[in-house]
Amino acid sequence: MATRRHRRRRSRRAQGRLPASPATAAPPRPAILRLLGCDGERCEETTLTDPAALAAARSRWPVIWIDVEGLDDGPVNALLGQVFEIGDLALEDATTPDERPKLEVFGHQLLVAVRMVRFDDEAIVTDPVGLFLGDRHLITFRDRHTHDGFEGVRQRIRSGRTRLGREGADHLCALLLDAVVDGYFPVLEKFGERLEHLEDDAIDNPTRDALGRIHDVRTDLMTLRRALWPTRDVLHALGREQTPFVGDHARQHFRDCYDHTMELLDLMEGYREISSDLRDIYLASLNNRMNDVMKLLTVIATVFMPLTFITGWYGMNFDTASPWNLPLLRFPYGSLVAAAVMVLITVAMVAAFWRRGWLRRWH
Amino acid sequence: MATRRHRRRRSRRAQGRLPASPATAAPPRPAILRLLGCDGERCEETTLTDPAALAAARSRWPVIWIDVEGLDDGPVNALLGQVFEIGDLALEDATTPDERPKLEVFGHQLLVAVRMVRFDDEAIVTDPVGLFLGDRHLITFRDRHTHDGFEGVRQRIRSGRTRLGREGADHLCALLLDAVVDGYFPVLEKFGERLEHLEDDAIDNPTRDALGRIHDVRTDLMTLRRALWPTRDVLHALGREQTPFVGDHARQHFRDCYDHTMELLDLMEGYREISSDLRDIYLASLNNRMNDVMKLLTVIATVFMPLTFITGWYGMNFDTASPWNLPLLRFPYGSLVAAAVMVLITVAMVAAFWRRGWLRRWH
Amino acid sequence: MATRRHRRRRSRRAQGRLPASPATAAPPRPAILRLLGCDGERCEETTLTDPAALAAARSRWPVIWIDVEGLDDGPVNALLGQVFEIGDLALEDATTPDERPKLEVFGHQLLVAVRMVRFDDEAIVTDPVGLFLGDRHLITFRDRHTHDGFEGVRQRIRSGRTRLGREGADHLCALLLDAVVDGYFPVLEKFGERLEHLEDDAIDNPTRDALGRIHDVRTDLMTLRRALWPTRDVLHALGREQTPFVGDHARQHFRDCYDHTMELLDLMEGYREISSDLRDIYLASLNNRMNDVMKLLTVIATVFMPLTFITGWYGMNFDTASPWNLPLLRFPYGSLVAAAVMVLITVAMVAAFWRRGWLRRWH
Amino acid sequence: MATRRHRRRRSRRAQGRLPASPATAAPPRPAILRLLGCDGERCEETTLTDPAALAAARSRWPVIWIDVEGLDDGPVNALLGQVFEIGDLALEDATTPDERPKLEVFGHQLLVAVRMVRFDDEAIVTDPVGLFLGDRHLITFRDRHTHDGFEGVRQRIRSGRTRLGREGADHLCALLLDAVVDGYFPVLEKFGERLEHLEDDAIDNPTRDALGRIHDVRTDLMTLRRALWPTRDVLHALGREQTPFVGDHARQHFRDCYDHTMELLDLMEGYREISSDLRDIYLASLNNRMNDVMKLLTVIATVFMPLTFITGWYGMNFDTASPWNLPLLRFPYGSLVAAAVMVLITVAMVAAFWRRGWLRRWH
Amino acid sequence: MATRRHRRRRSRRAQGRLPASPATAAPPRPAILRLLGCDGERCEETTLTDPAALAAARSRWPVIWIDVEGLDDGPVNALLGQVFEIGDLALEDATTPDERPKLEVFGHQLLVAVRMVRFDDEAIVTDPVGLFLGDRHLITFRDRHTHDGFEGVRQRIRSGRTRLGREGADHLCALLLDAVVDGYFPVLEKFGERLEHLEDDAIDNPTRDALGRIHDVRTDLMTLRRALWPTRDVLHALGREQTPFVGDHARQHFRDCYDHTMELLDLMEGYREISSDLRDIYLASLNNRMNDVMKLLTVIATVFMPLTFITGWYGMNFDTASPWNLPLLRFPYGSLVAAAVMVLITVAMVAAFWRRGWLRRWH
């Protein structure tokens, strides 16, 4: 149990929940820039080794996607800010590890900040993804953990199913947000399974750490909620008509993502309620256990106390010369009579307990 | 108990709560297309075996209802999309098994997604129903389980009580949504009965699985709530003036459905509160039980401990030659005196317990 | 207890909570139509035996109130619908036994649906009242149980305090709704008394059925809430300026009713909180009881265990010929010494318990 | 405890929570009318003995404050209504003992209903205050208990710090409402102290009536909340620009009162949470106590049971002629050996319990 | 424990939660005025010893920041009010120790009231900070405890990173509010650590004061919430377009502060939930403990009761001359047989308990 909790704690630190925590001050690694430029005909993927080529790429392609893997490469970020005219505050918002999902208009582009979900050593972790959507470009900032989430979209473009040159950058943005939101579904499915296991345990086998595990589930749900509620607002805003840089088709797509987020939130709220129900069930099971223990104790005390009293009675040292003192002691079958009385008492008591249902259902 | 839970789980899977779950990947069966065309005079029902006849039917009848039983017949869906100009995203929304109720305008039609309720092996299951309402047509997508819900409307049309040719497709849509919403009432009525049984059990006979059954009720209520809350929003939107494709008369009808949904939600919230009250009552009953057990134990220990002490006292082996050591042992009626003292003590204690009310109300 | 619950259940059924329940399918009785026509000078009350006279009455009086006692007299309802041009849906809304309070504009009139409260065999029941307010007429639909609520208004008109011919139908409607809302006050006052009794019981005398009675109070509060919350919305809408058929004076009156409803809701929410506090107090009292029982058990066991041990010690059969084996047994005052030791131990223990406060406050 | 509750109940009745309760039907006493008229130069205070002088006073002074002490003097109220053109409904609203705080525009004036707080025999009571604010006059209706609250304002005017003739009636109204709101602060401060005492008790000394006292605090908080929440709305409305009869300067003042109300509500909600936390702490303390009792019982039973068994063992009457039967009995130091064994067992057990921490921390 | 609570209470008093509390009536100390004037080129810091120089400074510098340390220096406040045309009500709002965060427009300036957080002897305390933002000046009122919060901004200006003469007073205001909000992060981080410690304790080692410490955490969270929620509204208002005295650049900055506040509130709500989960876990751990104690008691009683019965049986004084009375007593190996039976019973019972898992997991 303790190990589990310690692990969680570590990963929580790593997740960078609190900006000022020293754990986030790791030495920055150089960012990887993946460039994908499209015109009406085709798309070309390159990994930019020389950031200076950015400006040229921007003017060459009608639609361009720059995917920056690594949030803390200062020079690269500064260059991007310069080429695409992104202000410092906006850049900081997109590259802070614990940024809350939000949507903001910054002059020539839209900043969309969301969070991608993954399992890290059983605990749920969300990583920040920052997107700048302009008229003809999309820039995404993310760290290494979020690689797989975007790879699917990349393959879709490679396969030609999506023609970026025609659809535009807003469509690409919708595809990526769709991938981000869809990434939550398997996580929630796993939650459902964890809760089902806990349900069985809480009722049939209320072990000592069940409550700790329920608490883990609830903490994870809180992490998810903190990521999903503002995401919902972001997608709602993207699906409205007034948002700039978003065309009709992409808007429809964003609205669809919004519906998915609502489903996720519905599921999540359901899980939250189930988890608090489980806690109550667990406590009731504990009570039931205590009840069983108490009943066993009571049965045993109740059966043996009269028996012990009888043995004590015939163990008294009264002068048996007197015919009035404990006459049974001198009776040849005295102890048999005493035994018979004891058996009778025991049978009567066991019968009474049986009728009351106390002898059934021992765990 | 375990069986019950396992059954629930299975059915929950079948219900397709989570889109990516492998259980939903069953092999698709061909959809059944029921066509109902009406003009001012009469209606004609046919089962379309050749989907190619769709376009002809569309142009022939002033009002047409196409009822598609089966959500996953790709070619049929594609054909419908083509004939009635429905986009891919819209079609997908209407045929996803776990779609959340919603209302959306797609070019030439309105997409209304709701959920129909039924009992599956004691657990509550909701099935998706997708409706496309156009100026002159209504297309409904649903799976096999929802058959009975629409049959009533069909018979109403057959009997001539409703003249579709005059009322229009929006009126048909209102009739169908009315049938969907009314289907929730018997389900909630059954809930009321379940809660009444649980009420009796929780107070009089707090068995071990009562809490599990209360939990089942709460999970079912959550399923209902997830289906009904967005349905309420859908009906609210349909009852407003701005919604296209909906005439005055149908709007009135939708508002009526909305009122029914509000009643359902009121009932449901009431049941939710009752169920959490029941949980508390159950726990209190458990506590009462424990109290009874403890009282019995205390009564027995309290009665026998002094008696056993007295027998121990006269069982000591002091030298009775001395007149100061346990003189009663040599008294001819000694044991009778001891017995009398014991009886007195017992009577006094029983009286004390009686006055305190501990001897009444054993379960 | 069981009886109480069974009674409640019966009455709940009678109340017609669920539309499809068979209990509501009682054979319809003919409705009683009371007509009250007023002109500027005077009012005339008649009981309409011939419904055909309705149309004549309508055209004769400037202001007319038709009070229909009985909700399910089909022909009468149909005639009223025809004379006053009320649509079928509207008529159905006004005469459904379990209608939720609402306000709706139907062409030439306003439908106001509210619920009147009464005690039925200790349980709280609410009966539907439907009012159609037109420019010059008011039609009220209600069943027998709601008779007394309207009789006060009738007498006020008879006494001439209210001049309907001048005030208009909207004023009459306000008077009637005022009577409906005021009917809730004595019910809530009775609630206050019930809660005070429960408060005493929960603290001083936590009997076994206190929790059941608290649950009854909560269920009744839920019934009230279901009736009052939508009533508040109805009165809020009637007090706004835009509502048709309502003049300035009546609007002021409706706003007053709205304030009363807010007071009722405040009270009700207070009672809800008190009732859940009481539940916690009750459970704590149970715990206190258990604590007392445990303390008694512990005191007795603690006092007698050492004593019993000493009697056992001197009851051992060691060979007392040896001067090392239990020398006290041969001492002439041995048993007195043993008794003295026992008394000392007992006194010491009782003193310790007394200091700890365990011997006070037995229930 | 019981006395406390009975007192509360009495005072709650006196407070007139429920309009129809017979306790409020006390015989009306004549109202006292205090008149304060101001012009640009000075103010004059008189107690009106002849109500007929009202009309003259109204026309004489540019700004006039009529303070009516006593709510139920029918003739005086009627006269006021006539002189200042107040309608019947408005008058009734201002003089009902259990009026909910509200703000309403009635033709020539504004009705402001608020509630003043005070302690009545330890319980919190709120008294109604009704204010009519016109262009040049302010009329206040209140009962005897609220005297002190207004006296401060009166002295401020006497001292010349406030020049009513220049500031106008709206400023006077703001001063009075300020006095009403500020009266809540000492009450809440006292709450803070009560909660601190309860905090100590709940943790260190969970006496039987702590829960009852927590419940009292919660009931009082509910009374406060019922008075303060609508007051907040009233002050919010008075601080908005559209409200008639309120000038810029007074508006600023009302906004300040509004801020104070928000602070009060913040404090109150905090106290509510603390009180429910205290309840949980109290219950946990009870559990801790039970735990201690159980541990004591277990220690005693565990220590004495083996000892008693040993005494029983050597108290058996086996034929000690046989060398195999209980040889120790014939050993000269037998009982010393037995005693040594017993001491060993006891020491081992006590050590085990000590290590487990059971022997520390007895209450 | 008691000490902790008493300390808290003292500091709570010092914090001046309640305006009328006597503790706040400390003798006023003279305020320290720090002046920072900037033009396009450079900034100059001085400590004003002669308040009369204020007016001159105001006219000399294009942008001026007057930082008043000490809230209750009447003459200085009056002078500031006069020079910068601040009304009395506004000044009072800015210098009240328990002012709630708010934003208000007062003629020529904006009043922004917020609260700075710090630890005082382990408890969380918030100190008021009042800012007046005019076109060309910023005045801040605060007490000594808030010194460090502003020093960072001052150093930033000294280092030339921020050019106040160009950015304007609104930018300075944004920097200061940023510092205030960022001050909450380390406090919340410490909260996270406290909760983690409590998490360990609640599960593994539910000591008696854990609940008191959880309660402390919750009280502190309430203090934070009371400070942060209205701060959020203030920053939301500052980030909107309509607010006067705020330029585009500062507005962006305020919006960023708003995002940080939202993050803080998210974290805080999470901690609140965790703390109430911890309480439940703690109570469950207590229950578990009780369960263990009961099981131990039951095991011991169950093992020894039959053994003691057997010793009692063979301690009875039946006449062993009769071959029917307790024949074993005369058997040479009788006591060995008895001992064997006892061992058998003990082994059987221990095995039963082992199988049931009762002998594992003693704490």
Quaternary organisation: homopentamer
Question: What count of helical segments of chain A does DSSP give?
Answer: 11
- Helix and strand run of chain A: HEEHEHHEEEEHHHHHHH
Radius of gyration of chain A using CA atoms only: 35 Å
N-to-C terminal Cα separation of chain A, in Å? Answer: 24 Å
For the largest interface in this structure, which chains are involved and how many residues does each contribute?
A-E, 62 and 56 residues
Task: Identify low-pLDDT runs of chain A.
Answer: 1-25
Main sheet makeup of chain A? 7 strands, mixed
From the coordinates shown, what is the CATH architecture of the domain at 30-164 in chain A? 2-Layer Sandwich
Question: What would the average pLDDT of chain A be, to the nearest integer?
Answer: 84
- Helical/strand content category of chain A: alpha+beta
CATH level-1 class of the domain at 30-164 in chain A: Alpha Beta
Kindly report the name of the CATH homologous superfamily of the domain at 30-164 in chain A.
CorA soluble domain-like
And the CATH topology of the domain at 30-164 in chain A?
Answer: Beta Polymerase, domain 2
Strand order of the largest sheet of chain A: 2-1-3-7-6-5-4
Number of strands of chain A: 7
The percent range for helix content of chain A is 55-70%
Shape of chain A: rod-shaped
Query: Which range does the strand content of chain A fall in?
Result: 5-15%
